[in-house]
Design a protein that fits this description.
Elements lengths: L6 H6 L3 H42 L5 H9 L6 H17 L6 H23 L3 H29 L8 H64 L2
Helix pairs in contact: 2-6, 2-7, 3-4, 4-5, 4-7, 5-7, 6-7
Length: 229
């Protein structure tokens, strides 16, 4: 019974282009798995920190004291950044003579929008790479497969008698490229869809929180303007 070739032997005997394709897909797969684990831990930490901050925020703490506590920190979470950005504009504009409620709230909303945009970019880091790996890896693997099969059939021209055993190794090594493409693409696609949904949920949560803070600061702005002489 003929000895079966292992996958590593097939890769070692493959053509240079097929080997390059397999190496590229392996590197893309390793990089995507690293980003998957990094995003999973990061988004989980973001959710936990948001829970803690909202519990503290709605516990009745004085907002000005909370702002002073957070303003000097460099490790603010997304929801904390939105609050600090909005409250900073509120404090700055409230202290300006002649600023009305509308001008104060326009500054507050502008500051929060900038913070929301930056947070969305931070949450979506690496998702573009995962989407690229998920969408292109099968085609890259298919390219390697087509090239390998083409070489296998070209080699038949130099044989007086073609048999399945003569072309099977070449076709097998070519199909490894397709398998590697799917191996890289499937986890990347699943992770991208999962993380995109979690980012969307987190952003809706922060946007809802910013609306609530805007309502609170609007009432505070009305009270501040009413107290002016």
């Amino acid at each position: 019974m003929p000895e079966q070739l292992s996958i590593f032997e097939l890769i070692a005997n493959a053509s240079l282009l097929v080997q390059i394709v397999i190496v590229m897909l392996a590197v893309a797969s390793i990089a995507s798995w690293m980003m998957i684990f990094q995003r999973w831990f990061f988004l989980r930490r973001v959710q936990s920190e948001a829970d803690d901050f909202e519990d503290h925020f709605w516990s009745g703490v004085d907002l000005r004291e909370l702002y002073v506590e957070l303003d000097g920190r460099d490790d603010l979470t997304g929801i904390e950044t939105v609050f600090v950005a909005g409250f900073k504009e509120f404090v700055r504009l409230s202290e300006q003579a002649g600023s009305g409620v509308d001008s104060i709230m326009q500054g507050v909303q502008r500051g929060m929008r900038v913070a929301l945009t930056r947070e969305e970019e931070r949450l979506g880091t690496h998702l573009t790479f995962l989407a690229t790996v998920g969408s292109t890896s099968p085609y890259v693997g298919l390219f390697g497969t087509v090239w390998g099969i083409m070489n296998s059939f070209r080699s038949l021209a130099n044989m007086s008698q073609a048999t399945l055993a003569s072309v099977a190794p070449g076709i097998s090594e070519a199909l490894i490229a397709t398998a590697m493409g799917l191996f890289a693409a499937i986890p990347a696609v699943i992770a991208y869809n999962r993380f995109s949904a979690r980012v969307e949920v987190s952003m809706k949560r922060i946007e809802s929180f910013s609306d609530e803070v805007t309502s609170i600061l609007h009432r505070a702005a009305q009270a501040t303007v009413a107290k002016r002489p």
